[in-house]
Amino acid sequence: MARALRTLTQLMGWSSVAIGLFHVALGNAAIPGAGSAGTTIDSWGRFMGSSFVGYGLAWIWAARQRPIPAAVVRWLAGVFLLGAAGRFLSLAVAGRPQWFQLALTAIEVALPPVFFWLADAEERTERVAAEPAPAGR
Q1: How many angstroms separate the CA atoms of 72 and 78, rounded?
Q2: Contact 62, 68 (CB under 8 A)
Q3: Which H helix or E strand runs over 97?
Q4: Would you tell me the crossing angle of helices 70-94 and 2-26 to the nearest 10 degrees?
Q5: What is the C-alpha separation between 48 and 27, in angstroms, rounded?
Q6: SS (H, E, C) 12-62
Q7: pLDDT above 60: residue 49
Q8: Interacting residues of 31 by C-beta distance below 8 A, sequence separation 6+
Q9: Residues 73, 115: contact at Cβ < 8 Å?
Q10: What is the pLDDT, as a whole number, of residue 130?
């Protein structure tokens, strides 16, 4: 489980950085259906892209710690879940988005429980390894 946590944490970090840089570089063109949204949305999208780069860097930082800090993983997963809540709110208020946004929503709902479950896997493994062996009879 500790290996799964480390792998998923790194994957989350690098994919967030890549997605963020994609949005910074392409602006509206990075958002399906937003190509003609105008300069205000372009500016906002590039800003949010840079914020997502920072979010990804926080995941990468966590993945490089020994052990990976469970509290940090839980906070970062909570932020990701908050993004899903925002998408659900948008769905209720503005209606159904482009299909790819629905796929992203599914990922944003599915991954946080996995991270919440795995969050302390590495800390737990190190705690067990550090405990003295039971004394013989």
Answers
A1: 10
A2: yes
A3: none
A4: 50
A5: 10
A6: HHHHHHHHHHHHHHHHHHHCCCCCCCCHHHHHHHHHHHHHHHHHHHHHHHH
A7: yes
A8: 23, 37, 41, 45
A9: yes
A10: 67
In angstroms, the Cα distances linking 127 to 83, 116, 122 are 33, 18, 9
Q: Six-digit token pair at 72?
A: 């940090």
Q: ω before 32 within 30° of 0 (cis)?
A: no
Output the six-digit token pair for 9: 């944490």
pLDDT in tens, 78-108: 999 999 999 999 999 999 998 999 999 999 9
Cα distances (angstroms) measured from residue 11 to each of 8, 56, 58, 126, 128: 5, 9, 12, 22, 26
- Alpha carbon 126 to chain centroid, angstroms: 24
Residues in the chain, overall count: 137
Q: Which two tokens stand for residue 35?
A: 């190509």
Cis amide leading into 67 (omega within 30): yes
**H/E element, 120:** none
Q: What per-residue confidence (pLDDT) applies to 105?
A: 95
